[in-house]
Predict the structure of Orotidine 5'-phosphate decarboxylase.
Amino acid sequence: MSTDELISQIRKKNSFLCIGLDTDLSKIPPHLLEEADPIFSFNKAIVDATHHLCVAYKPNTAFYEACGIKGWEALAQTMEYINTKYPEILTIADAKRGDIGNTATQYARAFFEDLSFDAITVAPYMGRDSVEPFLKFSDKFTILLALTSNPGAFDFQTKRIEGKELYKQVLETALTYENSEQLMFVVGATKAEYLKQIRAIVPNNFLLVPGVGAQGGSLVEVCRYGLTKDIGLLINSSRGILYASKGKDFAAAAREQALQLQKAMAVEMDKI
Ligand SMILES: O=c1ccn([C@@H]2O[C@H](COP(=O)(O)O)[C@@H](O)[C@H]2O)c(=O)[nH]1
């Protein structure tokens, strides 16, 4: 998917919502545990109930890896389902990979070729040669962690090195990588007060923003400096949508939560 296609989907749906498929067997409705593949059954119901309200799905691979081979199979089946039934929707592997170039190439093949994701999250810590193998896939997006939503973000990311915060150095240096137009950056919704400075460095790249809902970030605060004339934002919610109900009405409850976020996004888009 190209950036223009993503923007056109956002305008069509009046939504820049990304739904996180963090499917946790201990949180899904108990009746689904009787199904042959409870993870896929849950994901399919969520996707069918919400696809018209969002432009991206983001399975966090940890939830699938934790279930071993069955988890990987459910992830592959989920990807095939979304790509076949809703090919216009961006798929993001929240895998936070990063390794020497030779190994990064295999990660890129695993997620872009084998599982057919459109995008992957990558940790920038190992530098250029660990990121460029992902960027070689010029029709895919590489989403670098810049300023994350968790409290531990302050351990390193906001520390100054030679007078400049590490997250700013990540943004500036990443723009020098080959195919940097295929980069997006993760910025936590809980760090909305940093967005003005972040936008000064990366005025055009899309930002993937997790942390609204369960982590307490504010959609309106994120939009204040995060939204650009070409939108430039994907705001993620996972638990707040997936686990709105643990009953048989879970998909309808998820749709309602997604609808509330989509409506709030439409209001923000009207302000641009
Ligand atoms: O800085 C980051 C980077 C990634 N995440 C991931 O996003 C979702 C958020 O889930 P919620 O349930 O909406 O809190 C989850 O997969 C995280 O691992 C993040 O939260 N912050």
Remarks:
- The CA atoms of residues 97 and 122 lie 5 Å apart.
